[in-house]
Amino acid sequence: MLCTIKGYLYGVICGKLPLYDAVPDAEVFAVPSKSDKAQVGGLDQPGAVDLKPVVRTISEEECKRVLSSAHVMKAKTNEKGMFCMTDRTYQGGLVDLYACIHAVPSTLKDHAKVGLEPRVCLFLGTYLPVRGEEGWNLVAYIPSGAWCSIKKKADLWTIAGRLTACKSGTPIGGARVMAYDTDWIQDDYLGIDTTNTSGIFRIDYMGAMYRKAPIIDIELFGGPDVYFRIEDPGGAVLLAEHRSKGRTSGRSDSGPCLCVALCVDIEETNPNPTDGLVTAWTGIGTHFTIPDAAVLNDFDASGYAGVQKYAFFYSMRMTGSAPRRSTSMNPVEYRFLVSDTTTLNGAAPPADADFTRVVGVGADAVLFTSIKVGQMIRYSPLRILDISAKLSDLDTEGWLDVDRSIQRTFVEDTTGLTPADIPDFQWVDTDGLMGINTVPLTSIGLTKVAIRFQIREVINKTAGIYVNMPGDGTTLNSIVIDNTNIAHSVSVHAPGSECDPVTTVPAVNYSVDHPHLMSVTLNVRSNDFAYNQNLTDTNLPLVGNTSSTLTHVGNPALTVPSTGLKTCTYLVTLSDLRRLHTGDSAATWQDTHATFYYVAP
Predict the structure, then answer these.
(1) pTM of this structure
(2) For the chain, how many helices (H) and strands (E)?
(3) Which of 34, 198, 251, 467 is most open to solvent, judged by the fewest CB atoms within 10 Å of its CB?
(4) What is the third-level CATH fold of 157-264?
């Protein structure tokens, strides 16, 4: 069954890890919204929008009013938090989303989920589902404050965190993390988990675990006082906190969701704390490096690339590096701007006000083209997932957060993966940033533009708080774009009509026009290949031309060499090559043909 709206419902435990629960057995309702603005994007990540003032508990009476709506869509989540709404009348647009929670999931073997009595109903916000390949998609999150409050009602508690090397910040996988509660008489063992390849661990436990004092329950109202012991896979101790650590701020009376950052001092082989955190636009495709502050690299001052002086055509792939998150685990987003005003490469860039075109926004949405921006990999069991950026992943100002692309890919996956699996995967940066379609830039076929890269760390998107990152503002002052069609023709001149056999040595009339001619050849061969001649004149062959002034070659009557001509059918091939490149591949040879039948005297 195809879903009109396919969605997932998650409860956030630790937003920055990220770590969240797939909410099972929840009733989800969507009604057309009377609002004119979305509070939440259909595929926004936790933290992209401040959900605290949005999500609220609703009464059973309000829930009944929602269900009485004439156009309410209903669904129930499965064990993976997925729901499927069907309504043929829905054609996109804002919806108000509600959910009634009946159970809280856990990782405990004997408590796969804990029921809630009574149920808890929430208004989740006004969402704008994102159009997908089949129907619409959205992912709804219950913010950590609200979700952890629900977990407390179920008496299901969670300790989660990331383990890294203290010096480099490198995640440590395969370590065993044990959590304890500092008690007055006897410390309580809360649980154990093994860190994944991202260094993330999660320990679920029932509240009774820290309230099992042998004489009197002295922690009826507070939470556990948590400290840790960490061992490597072989049992060697990496960290053994003193029990007094549980009495310190941030650890004592911890709530139903305790999120920690732990580090250990270990020997590392060639640690590199900056791996994956480079923020830069460095090139176009695999072939051309853009100018830097000292040298022009693969470009010249006028905007041509390479020793062949290539102009660019079709779709270009902007390449470089952008991490998923900053060192502070905040989202990172970037975009590309275009200016029709240019300056020489190596000189001062065009003014900020000249960059009026944003790739992927408004009339310039056509400038965006989808490319592969990276991969997600899970080591055990091995799974590799290609991640491409699509136009729907951009926000209204053209900013791309690759987490949105990752989220959408997992939502659209048909092999059983869900967004809840994302923490088990690691990001592989394959150097693609964004694709730019050059065709809309060239209304007259040939132009120059400037391109600027912007990248920033998102501190609070709702409040508009950002920090520009290294590489922000990188500008290619001039790049030549040419989507001009080549004009070429070839014909054979001989006495008589076109249907008559040729009885005299024929002549070839050829013409080639293009602003960026690179190479031209003209060949005549017999049908049996016995005669095979490359014709020459003052223009031919043209090989590797880099001059911008040579845009035409032609000859109205280039005589075919008579030596070797015999009675046969002949093929005349005019081949031309344009000096154009996408950054990944150059233009290929184009052929046009003529034929004649020659009768030897």
Answers:
(1) 0.84
(2) 3, 40
(3) 34
(4) Immunoglobulin-like (2.60.40)
